[in-house]
Known about the structure:
heterodimer; A: 6-stranded mixed sheet; B: alpha/beta; 5-stranded parallel sheet; 5 helices; 42% helix
Amino acid sequence: xxxxxxxxxxxxxxxxxxxxxxxxxxxxxxxxxxxxxxxxxxxxxxxxxxxxxxxxxxxxxxxxxxxxxxxxxxxxxxxxxxxxxxxxxxxxxxxxxxxxxxxxxxxxxxxxxxxxxxxxxxxxxxxxxxxxxxxxxxxxxxxxxxxxxxxxxxxxxxxxxxxxxxxxxxxxxxxxxxxxxxxxxxxxxxxxxxxxxxxxxxxxxxxxxxxxxxxxxxxxxxxxxxxxxxxxxxxxxxxxxxxxxxxxxxxxxxxxxxxxxxxxxxxxxxxxxxxxxxxxxxxxxxxxxxxxxxxxxxxxxxxxxxxxxxxxxxxxxxxxxxxxxxxxxxxxxxxxxxxxxxxxxxxxxxxxxxxxxxxxxxxxxxxxxxxxxxxxxxxxxxxxxxxxxxxxxxxxxxxxxxxxxxxxxxxxxxxxxxxxxxxxxxxxxxxxxxxxxxxxxxxxxxxxxxxxxxxxxxxxxxxxxxxxxxxxxxxxxxxxxxxxxxxxxxxxxxxxxxxxxxxxxxxxxxxxxxxxxxxxxxxxxxxxxxxxxxxxxxxxxxxxxxxxxxxxxxxxxxxxxxxxxxxxxxxxxxxxxxxxxxxxxxxxxxxxxxxxxxxxxxxxxxxxxxxxxxxxxxxxxxxxxxxxxxxxxxxxxxxxxxxxxxxxxxxxxxxxxxxxxxxxxxxxxxxxxxxxxxxxx
Amino acid sequence: xxxxxxxxxxxxxxxxxxxxxxxxxxxxxxxxxxxxxxxxxxxxxxxxxxxxxxxxxxxxxxxxxxxxxxxxxxxxxxxxxxxxxxxxxxxxxxxxxxxxxxxxxxxxxxxxxxxxxxxx
Lengths: 681, 120
């Protein structure tokens, strides 16, 4: 393999390093980093710099070098960093991220793109650092242009009495190693035979070649306590460019250093990582998931084909088949767990976002996160970011008050937003809460009335008012600020969450804050489905959205002229939609009879879907529909049932809105029902 | 590493023992030279860190006593002091001290410094 072949691998590694750096950005803001954080950030930048130098990514080297020196200083300064310095660092990390992305995707950023950020950072010039800074350098590579280095040739011949004066050459060697890159040659020729050795005498002699930022005086200082007990010659070599990488062809007595200190930390880490994990293309894993789904289906088919007589004839068949079932299930779970990712991958971008929001809004906001290790399927993780970002924006912009308002309300001026994830059963719960003013119900109500979303005299429970903010078109122009109003209202976010089987709820306590709860399925690849039949067609309704099923529903229904039937359920009047009407197919009873399925639409809204018959309930593997079929409203995907037939998976909210647009009897234009069945005056 | 820290400031002893214990060392403390010698009479240590100016017995006197002991004649002995005077340093060198570290120090520096004395 050529070095160039490792380049994509390096760029992928860079992405990991950057993700790690991202996590420290929030800590920068707190003006103080824990020692291990600075170390980790430093190592990440250092690895990027080293690799960039090796692969000739010339634009990445200078900026990562600058970041590295600054981080090194922060490390020496006990993790302290001034606010504006932190901001400059963050900008530089941003630039670095963009540069690496450009390299990864193969496009070029305009020349000088990174200059502004680097100039800004340069204003916080690293202070002169003597020892430890160079110690860090010692662990790294030398492919980049750092500050000028000195190359020293040191001859160190201890007198025989050096040990008796409680001096230890090893300590000196370690100290030299701490300030630079050290090459050690030990001359053992003076060591006598065993019987002639005096253990308190010193017999060894050393030649060192030291590459360091330190001056000769500083190097000499290391020998301060042995001067007089040794012959010492320190020569500054004029040709500092001679690399140390290839050891000078040295005599056989060249002895390696006592400890393998020249292995860089980065190298160490790469070795460790390669043992515990491998990189696999997601496409391969997706194929694996698909195949496991197919196996499950084939197995169900086989099970159906084997009839009771066969089992009776061969009792072991049943036993083995059960075993197969268990293994398939385990295989399925395992494959799904491979795709599982911690929500951290999404969460870690948020502190940064909240910090920037705080800056823009003039509010001091602290983000507390918990449950970042909660794992969910990658298909869900990918969908999580947008709704979380949107909700955080809302919390920061509308939820939290300004510092003066908070003080007036007797709260701390610093607002707190909590982002929490946890698994409950087969769902993952994401909670975003703030300690702000809570929803202004009067204002929401007024807005909803003004927009014709509710009647002026409608009586709504407090919770119902809160949920009005999810209605399409609710977002008011007054609240359309740059932060939260990016042309997308909460309703759209909610619809997105619903589309992948999620639910959103809001709870507000006036003066104490708002809590938004998103509940999502653990995976989008498999769902628990209610199988219903309409005429000759089978449909799958996600069980997650089914509230109740009623046979003999006609007896309870009322007929509304021009709008078909309505059904009273859970204290509400709800429109009844026939799947046969919605999809224009022929059912058994031409829309009469059948079974009524009450489905949950938006957390609080409901609809009744009528099918001919419920045929079963099972886990189905969700397959995406290809091409144009993908865009059919009301259809979320397809699956293959145990008998090998294809069934379409319904998206209840879309089905309800499709059905609501179709004429029922006659005269359906003037809608006095919303599609969700809410009565509107 | 087994370390003996000698200083008449309890605060400094606290800092030393907390920092070094956290770094995985076993730290014994003595608030003066006599206490230190009493400890060394029964125990072997890998490193002695001592203040220079202490009550009862100066750091130099302690060093002198320590070097008389056959067990500790070669034990690394480090002065941790606020003194930067070159003559004092020279005196320490003559008395067979191993190194000199100037207060104040930060914990990371201390840990790194001490790690150099790790016996092979």
